[in-house]
Amino acid sequence: MQADPNERTGNSEQFCADRIGFAKLTTMAFHGTDLRPMRDDLMAKVADGTATAGDGLDLSLIAQLLGDKQTGLSIQTEVVAFHQLFRSSCVAPIPKLRVLALAAPIDMGGNTPIEFLLEESGIELLTLYVVPGIDMPFPMPAHDVAIVIASSEECRDALRIIDEMAPSWPRPMLNPPHLVCNLDRDKLHHLLSGIEGLDIPATLWATRAQLSDMPTSDLSLSEFAAELQFPAIVRPRGSHAGVGLAKLDDAAAISRYLEARPEQEFFVSRFVDYASEDGLFRKYRVVFVEGRPYACHMAIAGQWDIWYLNAGMSDSAAKRLEEETFMRTFDIGFANRHATALSGMAERIGLDYFTIDCAENKRGDLLIFEADNTAVVHNMDSPELFPYKPPQMRKIFDAFAAMLCARAGRGQEHAA
């Protein structure tokens, strides 16, 4: 049974493990640093018994960054079974604020990468892994404001534990867990249905058995669910970064897809051709902080399944110029054009911080692919190639830090 958090707040120094952290390690990998020597050094510390819990969590992340997801998750499971609280480095010797991030023990894409948002803020970040079956630390670590960073689809147990404690939490809590759960792909289209100027295809959950039956029973997608039709988009439930995402043009394609996938549960939605008049696809990431939208990036490619890293933005000055224009004119351009849809979505989702991946359909409506609290929002791109990005990222980071400070301040006023 979890104790009342009001009775569990105290000094966290004695049981807080320091770590290199997500932002620094991911940035190293992004810029091509060979992480294997660091991995080997940490493994040597594990072997001789000198490794700390922070070393273990860093080792878990390095393994995942090197492509060994299963080993990384196994290490993480071992670490958080005996230690749950970690501290990331802070640029300020005396932090202006202490934030407690409530995380779930999941792969590296399953929690908000909050370190990127706070790296230069002077705000100290503590991350507490909420592990089912393990009590919260006693006393609860001292903090000024808390934020839930666990994702929706695969973190239900952690979110349930946090939700049970939320009403008596002693400090302001951002991104409350009951709202995070609404970001599930098969829930979001119900939540956002009917917003003027917004197009979000229905996404339905299907088992492997249900999909397998279609080619042999001559069922069409519309007979499985009225909202669906070919061509359709399918992806494994709980997948990140486009893993397993595919377009199905007919029932025969389902069999070919399942032959290549081991998963048992999938999300299916209708395909929307969102190509512009020039035949290129444009996909946008927008960040919401306290309901206000900010441009994060724009990817342009010749194929519909775009991610920023496969769009060739570094290789095209023309694409970068278009992204720069998107960012510089965002408030009077994209955000103004879709003001009704963006504000309606922010109001219904209700989270303090989240992101959307979106496009514009052929009618000019805002086409929503997903809303998420765990998308990577970073400033790792080359400032020489992308000189327009650092100022835009700073806007987002400053807004996020200001939100935390304001909420902490209001919490103190309420307590007084």
What would your notes on this structure say?
The protein has 416 residues and is of the alpha/beta class. The chain has helices at 22-30, 36-48, 53-65, 69-82, 114-118, 156-165, 177-180, 185-192, 208-217, 221-224, 251-260, 317-328, 334-337, 339-349, 389-415, and strands spanning 9-10, 17-18, 85-87, 97-103, 123-129, 140-141, 145-148, 173-174, 198-199, 203-207, 232-236, 246-248, 265-270, 281-289, 292-301, 353-360, 366-372. The longest helix is centred in the C-terminal third of the chain and has 27 residues, at 389-415.
List the helices and strands and how they pair.
Elements: E1 9-10, E2 17-18, H1 22-30, H2 36-48, H3 53-65, H4 69-82, E3 85-87, E4 97-103, H5 114-118, E5 123-129, E6 140-141, E7 145-148, H6 156-165, E8 173-174, H7 177-180, H8 185-192, E9 198-199, E10 203-207, H9 208-217, H10 221-224, E11 232-236, E12 246-248, H11 251-260, E13 265-270, E14 281-289, E15 292-301, H12 317-328, H13 334-337, H14 339-349, E16 353-360, E17 366-372, H15 389-415
Parallel strand pairs: 1-6, 2-3, 4-5, 4-7, 7-8, 9-17
Antiparallel strand pairs: 3-5, 10-13, 11-12, 11-13, 14-15, 14-16, 16-17
Helix pairs in contact: 1-3, 2-3, 3-4, 9-11
Identify the notable features of this structure and list them briefly.
globular, 416 residues, 5-stranded mixed β-sheet, 15 helices, alpha/beta, 6-stranded mixed β-sheet
